[in-house]
Amino acid sequence: MTKKYNVGVVGYGWAATAHIEAINATAQGQVVAVCSTRKLDAAELAARHGGTIRVYNDLASMLADPAIDVIDITGLPSKHAEQAVAAADAKKHIILEKPMANSPEEVARILQASKANGVRGCVCFELRYSEQLQVTKELLEKGLLGQLHYGEIDYYHGIGPWYGQFRWNTGKRDGGSALLTAGCHAIDALLMMMGDRQVESVTSMSTKTNSPTFDPYEYDTSSVTLVKFADGALGKTAAIVDCFQPYYFHTHLVGSEGSLLDDRFTSMKLSKERNAWHRLSMKMCDSGDVSDHPYQSQFQEFFNALDRDEEMPLTSFSDAARTFEVIFAADQSASSGGQPVVPESFS
Question: pTM value?
Answer without folding.
Answer: 0.96
